[in-house]
Structure formats: structure tokens, C-alpha cells
Amino acid sequence: MNVLIVYAHPEPASFNAAMRDRARDALTRAGHEVVISDLYGEGFNPVAGRHDFLSVADEQVFHYQTEQAHAARHGSYAPDITREQKRVADADLLILQFPLWWGGVPAILKGWGERVFSYGFGYADGLRFDTGVFRGRRAMVSLTSGGTTARFGAGAAYGELERQVLWQIQHLGLEYMGYELEPPFVAYGAPRVDAAGRAAYLDALEEHVLRAAEKPVDRSLKIESPLDLVPDGAWRQQR
């Protein structure tokens, strides 16, 4: 299986880095091919703009989805987007590794999704959720939280983990693209856990990712050219 780990933490000595390395090493030993997108380490720019494109659909008005569709049709994405889209397209299993900051993913990971899962590559009109581009592929999130398990749940301070905290990245992000989700892996209270607790988290993460990688995928279901299924100029008005 081809696995892509998208890693979003600025500190190489972080526990997130240890989780990334443990997942990579376990999957590699099991015979899987693993690629890592180190967003901070590779200097990924999370800010969308005209710099995303090598050619222009409309020089007068910048409409992001229109420019994305043009780039998808003409192969004119900027090199960093082209690189990340190839990594995503090759992956049978996508793992997002990040710390939970302000109740969501770090800004660099949000920007990665906005620029990489673009219109014409990650989705198009009528190609979402059950009809999504990445049907047949699997995805999961792996994260650290400063909050303990007591902070999450119905009526708790931070809300229910999957139905509230992770709803945007899991449902409106990964499932939107057609991925089948694995349960999230969470290292709760990571700053407060001792060495033995962190070791236990890493052991549990290894089991989690290996189980995910054992599940079948169907590469034939992915839609390779989404814009072939929608009319040219499908995006209409600026918003």
C-alpha cells in the first residue's frame, strides 16, 4: 500500500514528530511505501493566490475555483501544488498528523487542503461525498491535544470529538473528497503525559495505522479526470 503522511508541526523534537516517525517506521517494516509531506520542513506556503498558477484564465478578476479548473485542464499549477497533488494521487491511505490548535488543524494544514484539494483535482460539481473523487481510498487523522479525555464529549468543554471538533477536517474535508475514514487517533493531554504514557501512545498508534493499512482499497474507483464529467466554465459567480 502507498501511504502519505502529511505532517504539520514546526518542531522536529515534538511528540507529533515522534508519532510521525513511529507510524512511518511501522508501516515501512510491514512492507508499505511511505511518503511524508513535512509542511513546515518543506516550507509549504498555505496562502492561496495567483501564485498558485502558471497560466491565467481571467486576468481581470481572480476567481479561485475558475483558476483552479483552468490549471487542472492545462497542467499549469505551481510546482509545490503539483508535487503535493501527485503525492495525494499516489496514496492509498492518507494520514494527517497534527496538534489540535484552537479547536482545529494548524493554519498550514488548512491551507494545504485549500490549495492541494482544488476544484478539478479533489472535487467538482456533483463529485462529493459518496460520489467523491477519492472513492476507494482511505484516510485518517492522528493528533495530539492539550486537553484530557474529560474535556471532550457531549456537554464537555470542548464538545464531541468527531461530531464537533473534527467535523470540518473529517466530514467537510476528507469525506467530502470521497475518502473512507478510519477512526481518529488522539494522544490526549500530550503535554501532561509522562514518558511511559507517551510510549503507550506510540505503541497504540502503531497498532492503529497497521490495522488501517491492512484494509482493502480500490484504486479503480478514483476519478482521474474530474473535469471530464462537468462542463467547462461550471463555476459561475464570484463570492
TrEMBL record:
Keywords: Oxidoreductase
GO cellular component: cytosol
Database matches in InterPro entries: Flavodoxin_fold (IPR003680), Flavoprotein-like_sf (IPR029039), NAD(P)H_dehydrogenase_qn (IPR051545)
Keyword check for Oxidoreductase: yes
Gene3D superfamilies cross-referenced by the UniProt entry: 3.40.50.360
Domain Flavodoxin-like fold, first and last residues per copy: 1-208
Pfam families according to UniProt: Flavodoxin_2
Gene Ontology molecular-function annotations: NAD(P)H dehydrogenase (quinone) activity
Highest taxon listed in the record's lineage: Bacteria
Membrane-spanning intervals of the chain: none
Keyword Oxidoreductase assigned: yes
Protein family per UniProt: Belongs to the NAD(P)H dehydrogenase (quinone) family.
PANTHER family from the UniProt entry: NAD P H OXIDOREDUCTASE-RELATED, NAD(P)H DEHYDROGENASE [QUINONE] 1 ISOFORM 1
Protein name listed in UniProt: NAD(P)H dehydrogenase (Quinone)
Taxon lineage: Bacteria, Pseudomonadati, Pseudomonadota, Alphaproteobacteria, Hyphomicrobiales
